[in-house]
Here is the input.
Amino acid sequence: DTAVSQTPKYLVTQMGNDKSIKCEQNLGHDTMYWYKQDSKKFLKIMFSYNNKELIINETVPNRFSPKSPDKAHLNLHINSLELGDSAVYFCASSQWSSGTGDTQYFGPGTRLTVL
Amino acid sequence: GNSVTQMEGPVTLSEEAFLTINCTYTATGYPSLFWYVQYPGEGLQLLLKATKADDKGSNKGFEATYRKETTSFHLEKGSVQVSDSAVYFCALRYGNKLVFGAGTILRVKS
Here is the structure.
């Protein structure tokens, strides 16, 4: 069984379009994340939700809006796509802790290409 | 602020060679430290972790020791295999944020 799954795996779209990426985890975790990996493999956190509440919101354009309908799902909606949004987006999940080093489990990634 | 610095790659080794990938960090307090691995076309997988000073994380022949005095968490493996070819990320965790290094590409030749 896949622990953290993302759909779609690949997404090719035109500039200006609106698109969504979905993420689901079946690990029973209460915290989920979105990361962006650029063309140089650099990974940076974008958002995190704990029990459907936004707890981390890095400096990300307003065009990006995460939505968590329940603890097992965290979707990422992107409006007015730009060329610079091309990247691999990773979803992850973990169990909330107060700094004891709980592991984050990552999905397989969604490669977004904006033309 | 919190940051992680890794040695630049790519690192190219022959099979059965010894591997070291350097990682140093800057952090307030005492973060947990991780090594993640990304195989071609896949997501990140946790390789090993350490949560306090002098802890040693180990998995699949890889090891790293949390050194507070040198703020380091270097990854080592005594004998690499072709199947170890991947991108390796050092990361620190404070609160629920993971801060990653830039990643080091490892290529192992047979």
